Amino acid sequence: MATVTFRDETATGKPVTEWRVDGLPDRMTVGELIRLRVREEVTRHNAAPGGRFNGLVRPVDAETALNGRRHGEPRLVDWERQAAIAERAFLANGFFVLAGDRQVEELDEVVDLTGGPELVFIRLVALVGG
User: Residue 101: CB partners within 8 Å, gap ≥ 6?
Assistant: First the structure.
């Protein structure tokens, strides 16, 4: 069984968050790893859903909350919906993933997890007016 470290960084390389997941198969595709990551972060959020969701991709309702309108009760986030959004964002270059020392570019690309690699997620921010 393998262990992988998920880490978010800014485009300038500044670490933002980091956590490990143990007990994984020795090889997984990038798509499976993205789905795993999203499922983990949504599970953590849904365990205490009162706060702001801080994940790879923002839930659809988050924009309304940012603009001042709050719902009467905390909403649970659907991990499968978030995973689908994350996969589309990856394919549209909304973020990229480094596995060890190389950039992975396809959802079906297989990553060897036997060496305990770090998976670095770097979100790209669209430029205003660009």
Answer: none
Would you call 90 helix, strand, or coil by DSSP? Answer: helix
- Residue 55 and residue 60: Cα distance in Å, rounded? 12
What DSSP line would sit under 5-19, residue for residue? EEEEE-TTS-EEEEE
Q: The CATH number of the domain where 43 resides is what?
A: 3.10.20
How do residues 29-78 score in pLDDT, each as one tens digit? Answer: 999 999 999 999 999 889 987 777 778 888 765 444 444 445 556 778 89
Domain range for 79: 2-123
Does residue 9 sit within a domain? yes
Above 80 in pLDDT, residue 91? yes
Domain count across the chain: 1
Q: Above 70 in pLDDT, residue 26?
A: yes
**Is there a domain that residue 128 lies in?**
no
What tokens does 58 get? Answer: 């923002």
